[in-house]
Write a structure and sequence with these properties.
Layout: E1 4-5, E2 8-9, H1 11-15, H2 49-63, H3 69-81, H4 88-102
Antiparallel strand pairs: 1-2
């Protein structure tokens, strides 16, 4: 005779006929001891001030356009007219600064 638990045949039930019997009234695994009731424990989440601030910043960043169209158009016109000039000293300084920050040698 097979015993079904939650609609699935139990592998132990098939062996039960071979001398392996379970005690009547045996407690289910994970069930609270008899006489005690289980009370659900509620999960809670609390955010730090930093997390709240980051969430606000995220919302502000999401509202900003990805590309500054006006700046792109100004640069496009400067390049087209031949008036755009590259400041090589500034570019070099920014590259060195970036590399230093990347390797932890400078201020963020």
């Amino acid at each position: 005779m097979a015993i079904e638990i939650n609609g699935l045949p139990s592998p132990q039930a098939k062996i039960a006929g071979e001398g392996s019997q379970t005690k009547a009234g045996q407690q289910e695994a994970g069930a609270p001891p008899s006489g005690q009731t289980s009370t659900p424990i509620a999960d809670t989440v609390s955010l730090t001030g930093t997390a709240t601030h980051l969430k606000t910043l995220e919302a502000v960043m999401a509202s900003l356009p990805v590309v500054d169209s006006q700046r792109v158009e100004q640069l496009r016109q400067s390049v087209s007219s031949g008036t755009y000039r590259v400041d090589s000293q500034r570019v070099a300084s920014k590259l060195v600064s970036f590399e230093n920050r990347l390797h932890g040698k400078g201020k963020a």
